[in-house]
From TrEMBL, chains A, B:
Family indicated by similarity: Belongs to the DSD1 family.
Protein name in the entry: D-serine deaminase-like pyridoxal phosphate-dependent protein
Gene3D superfamilies listed in its UniProt record: Alanine racemase, D-serine dehydratase-like domain
Origin species: Nocardioides panaciterrulae
Alphabetical list of SUPFAM superfamilies matching this protein: PLP-binding barrel
Transmembrane segments annotated in the record for this chain: none
InterPro entries in UniProt: Ala_racemase_N, D-amino_acid_metab_enzyme, D-ser_dehydrat-like_dom, D-ser_dehydrat-like_sf, PLP-binding_barrel
PANTHER family membership: D-SERINE DEHYDRATASE (PTHR28004:SF2), ZGC:162816-RELATED (PTHR28004)
Pfam families assigned to the protein according to its UniProt record, in alphabetical order: Ala_racemase_N, D-ser_dehydrat
A single MF term (Gene Ontology): D-serine ammonia-lyase activity
Keywords: Lyase
Length: 350, 350
C-alpha cells in the first residue's frame, strides 16, 4: 500500500458514473465530450471513450497536447485562449493528429486567432455567458464574434457555455434552464445570420440531469466521473457514488479531536460558500473537517469515539479537480488490487 | 519567456528577505531553521544556508528525503509523524547522511517511535500547542511525552510549537506572546524533570518580528522568503517585498471585467477569513480578484481602464506555499534573465 495520504479511485464506482452519463447522453441523442481536466488521466479518458464519448474537452493547450500524444484524436479546448505565435504553432501542430477546436469570446479574440491560425484546420466555438458571469458573450453578441471568425477563414463549429452557477444549493435546475435559454437564443441568432451551429455545447455535473437535450447537442461534464464533497453537499451525487477518496492516517488526538495527515496539499484548499467544511468523511457523515492546513485536517467527529492513532480514515475532497491536480499518481482499486495511474496532464496550466 | 501562467521569483527581493530573517536570528543569538515546505526548492534552501541557517525544517518525510539527497545534512521534520515499519526505515536511512529529528505530540506517538526507531540516531522534539489548537500538547503535558520518549532510548532534543493563530488581523504580537509563554513553561517543566531542552523552537512569518528570543533558541518561518497576499493583507510584508508572483495573460473582457488565465490550479484556492479576494495585483492595489475557478481569475479593477486582451498582469497568490506546490518549475529572474528552478519536493505529501 502507498504511504498516506494518497488518492484512491474505486473503479467499480468510476465505471458506474461513466456509464450513467454515457447513457444519459445516448438516450437523449446528444454527444458526450467529457472534460478531462477533472482527472487528467489517460486511463480514465479511455474508459470514457469506450463508453461512447465523442471526444474530450480540455481547459488548456498542455492538457490537449498530452491527450493527443496518447492517441486521442478529437479535442475541444473549452477556453477562450488568447493566442500568440508560440501557442498558435502548438495548436496547429496538434491538427496533424487530431480534430481540434478552441473557444473564443470576443471579436478581437476571433481576429487574433484568424491572424495566427491562418488556413489551419482549427475550429472555433463561440462562448456564451448563460448566467455564470465568468467568460463568454451574451447570446445577442454571438453573431458578431462568429462573423469576425468566419471572415478570417476559420470554421465556426458552433457555440458553448458553462452553467457554472449550478454550483449553489438548489440552483442546478434553474442553471440548466438558463443554459438552454442562452444557447437556444445564440443558435437562433447564428442560424438567422447564415452561420448555423453544428454543435451547441453545454453541461456541468450539477446541472447534468436537468440539461435540455432538445437544445444542446453536446454535454461536457467533468466531475461526474468521481464526484466530490461539493456534489455530495449539493445533493447531486450521493456519497455511495463518490469514486475518489483520499486515504489518510490519524496522526494526533490533540485537544480531543482527530488530526489527519492530509491537508490542502493533497485535498486542495477549496471551500465554496455552501460547503460545510474542508471535505467529508464517508464513514462519519456527521463529522466535519473544521480546520485545514497544508498537512493537517482537524476533524470534529460529532461525538463519535476517536479512531486510534495510526488508523486509516478516508476523506472525500471538496473539489476533486484540484485534489487530482496535486498528485502524480492515482491508485485505482478493483477487487482489492491497486493499479497506479499517472495523472499525465498534472500541472499543465498553459 | 514561458507561456502564462507561470510563477516568477524576483531574486533580488528573495535575497533581501532571506537576509532580513538571517539578520534577525543572528542579532538575537538564535538559530534559523527555515521551513522549506514553502519553496520545496534546493536552490532557495542553499541561499538560506549560505545566509547562516542552521538547518532546514520540512513537513514530510518525502521533503526530507529530497533535501538530504541534495546534500542537506540537518533536517527537522516539524510534524508529529505516526510511524510504521516503512516510514521508520526511510527515516533511519536518512540518518546515514544527515542529522534528523521529528516531532511527537503524544505518549503513544513517543512509544511507537521508540519501538520502530530502535537505537537509531533520530531525535524527537515534543510539540506544544501554544494557542493555534491544531496539534501539540499543552505545556504541562510535555514531560509525560518526553519521558515516554526518553524511556525508549530516543534522544529528546527539546520542544517546538507553531503559533499559527498569528494568521489573523492584529494577531501576530499576541500569538508571539502565547508562543513564548507556552514554550517557556514547557522548557521549565522539562528542566525540572531532568530533561532540559537543548532546543526551544518556534516561529511563523506573521509573528517573526515579535518572537521572544529570550525564550526561543530556534526560529522556523517559511513564507518569509517570498511573502504572499496573506502577508500583505496582514500587514506583515509590504507588496514591495513580495518576491513571487504569477505572471498571467488577459484572456477576456467579458462583462466589462478582466479575466486572467490563472486560476486555482496555479494560484491555489486558499481564501482565509481575512482575505479580501483570491490574490492581489501589485500594479493595481485597489483591484480584487472576485471570482476564481481552475483557469480563470475574474478581476474587479476598481474603475481602472481594462488592460488590453493578451497583455500581461502579475498576481500575488494568497498562500504562496500552495501555489508553489502546483508547479514543477519556478522562474527566477535577475537582471532580466530567467533561470528555471525545479520545485524538487513538489507533491511529496508522504
Amino acid at each position: 500500500m502507498p504511504a498516506t495520504p494518497y488518492l484512491r479511485v474505486d473503479l467499480a464506482r468510476l465505471r458506474g458514473n461513466i456509464r450513467a452519463a454515457a447513457d444519459l447522453a445516448a438516450n437523449g441523442g446528444v454527444g458526450l465530450r467529457p472534460h478531462v481536466k477533472t482527472h487528467k488521466c489517460v486511463e480514465i479518458a479511455r474508459l470514457q471513450l469506450a463508453a461512447g464519448a465523442v471526444g474530450i474537452s480540455t481547459a488548456t493547450l498542455g492538457e490537449a497536447e498530452t491527450f493527443v500524444r496518447h492517441g486521442f484524436d478529437d479535442v475541444f479546448i473549452a477556453y477562450p485562449l488568447w493566442l500568440d505565435t508560440t501557442s498558435a504553432g502548438r495548436l496547429t501542430d496538434l491538427t496533424g493528429d487530431a480534430r481540434v477546436a478552441i473557444g473564443v469570446d470576443s471579436v478581437e479574440g476571433a481576429a487574433n486567432a484568424g491572424r495566427l491560425l491562418g488556413g489551419s484546420a482549427v475550429e472555433l466555438l463561440v462562448e456564451v455567458d448563460c448566467g455564470h458571469h465568468r467568460t463568454g458573450v451574451p447570446p445577442e453578441e454571438v453573431v458578431a464574434v462568429a462573423t469576425a471568425a468566419a471572415r478570417t477563414g476559420l470554421s465556426v463549429r458552433g457555440v458553448f457555455t458553462f452553467p457554472g452557477h449550478s454550483y449553489a444549493r438548489g440552483a442546478p435546475a434553474e442553471a440548466a434552464r438558463d443554459e438552454a435559454a442562452a444557447l437556444s437564443r445564440a443558435a437562433e441568432e447564428l442560424t438567422a445570420a447564415g452561420l448555423p451551429p453544428r454543435v451547441v455545447s453545454g453541461g456541468s455535473t450539477p446541472s447534468l440531469a436537468h440539461s435540455d437535450l432538445g437544445v444542446l447537442t453536446e454535454l461536457r461534464p467533468g466531475v461526474y466521473v468521481f464526484g466530490d464533497a461539493q456534489q455530495w453537499e449539493l445533493g447531486v451525487m450521493p456519497p455511495s457514488a463518490v469514486a475518489l477518496t483520499c486515504r489518510t492516517s490519524v496522526v494526533s488526538h490533540a485537544g480531543g479531536r482527530v488530526v489527519l495527515d492530509a491537508g490542502s496539499k493533497v485535498l486542495g484548499a477549496d471551500r465554496a460558500a455552501y460547503a460545510t467544511g474542508y471535505g467529508r468523511l464517508p464513514e462519519h457523515p456527521e463529522a466535519r473537517i473544521v480546520m485545514l492546513s497544508e498537512h493537517h485536517a482537524v476533524v470534529d467527529l460529532a461525538g463519535a469515539a476517536l479512531p486510534p492513532l495510526g488508523s486509516r480514515l478516508d476523506v472525500v475532497p471538496n473539489h476533486v479537480c484540484n485534489a487530482v491536480n496535486l498528485v502524480d499518481t492515482l491508485f485505482a482499486e478493483e477487487s482489492g488490487e491497486l493499479r497506479a495511474w499517472p495523472v499525465a496532464a498534472r500541472g499543465l496550466n498553459a
